[in-house]
């Protein structure tokens, strides 16, 4: 009985996170200019309650610590791969049906599609943010060729193709030619629950 209640509660939490992302999407689309990128579909769901010591949870709870998140598959399960500016890497296999169900329609991580990535972290002034891991000025279609790389400053990323550097605090171009800011996605996070990122 308790097991069924826990699964029901987890499904309800996941549904709430999806509903929150959808509600924020609707509100962001009403009036004013939205900063949410809709150029490429993005959908990422991660159950922090099952991975409380992950690098992703650290990024959600620590100021100016960001992780680059990508996904792969291994033996029929989805794997969340994270890395930070120091080169620390972590791979988490999504080991239960509910976690894997979120990706039954495929992996959509922005400009790179199934091979893309998103950068997630907590800023000083703007809360938790999620950026596309591809350069917004070089990616002109689904590609993983313009992956942003960390600089010596853990809050700045650079495109090795065009040379632009971007702030992970604001998404703005810090150096290089004028152009578009980083592609931003909506974040919904229930502490010790579900992280949802999308557009």
Give me the secondary-structure category: alpha+beta
Question: What number of structural domains do the residues give?
Answer: 1
* DSSP strand tally: 13
Q: Report strand %.
A: 25-35%
Most strands sheet? 9 strands, antiparallel
The gross shape turns out to be globular
Distance between the termini: 36 Å
* Helix/strand order: HEHEEEHEEEEEEEEE
Descriptive report:
By secondary structure, this protein is α+β, with helices and mostly antiparallel strands. It has one domain (2-198). The chain has 3 helices and 13 strands. It has helices at 2-29, 55-61, 97-101, and strands spanning 42-47, 67-74, 77-83, 89-93, 108-109, 117-122, 128-132, 149-150, 156-158, 165-167, 173-175, 184-189, 194-198. A 9-stranded antiparallel beta sheet has the order 4-3-2-6-7-12-13-1-5. A 4-stranded antiparallel beta sheet has the order 8-9-10-11, with no helix packed on it. A hairpin with a 2-residue loop joins strand 2 and strand 3. The longest helix has 28 residues, at 2-29. It is globular and about 45 Å long. The model is unreliable at 1-5 and 10-32 (pLDDT under 50).
């Amino acid at each position: 009985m308790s097991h069924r209640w826990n699964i029901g509660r987890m499904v309800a939490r996941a549904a709430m996170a999806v509903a929150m992302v959808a509600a924020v999407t609707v509100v962001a689309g009403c009036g004013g200019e939205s900063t949410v990128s809709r150029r490429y579909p993005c959908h990422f769901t991660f159950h922090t309650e099952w991975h409380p010591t992950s690098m992703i949870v650290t990024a959600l709870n620590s100021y100016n610590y960001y992780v680059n998140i990508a996904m792969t598959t291994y033996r029929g399960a989805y794997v969340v791969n994270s890395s930070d500016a120091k080169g620390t890497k972590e791979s988490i296999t999504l080991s239960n049906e509910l976690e894997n169900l979120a990706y039954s329609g495929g992996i959509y991580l922005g400009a790179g599609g199934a091979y893309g990535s998103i950068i997630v972290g907590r800023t000083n002034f703007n809360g938790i943010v999620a950026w596309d891991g591809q350069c917004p000025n070089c990616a002109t279609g689904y590609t993983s060729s313009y992956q942003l790389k960390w600089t010596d400053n853990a809050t700045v990323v650079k495109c090795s193709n065009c040379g632009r550097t971007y702030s992970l605090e604001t998404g703005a171009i810090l150096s290089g030619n004028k152009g578009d800011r980083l592609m931003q996605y909506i974040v919904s996070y229930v502490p010790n629950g579900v992280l949802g990122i999308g557009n």
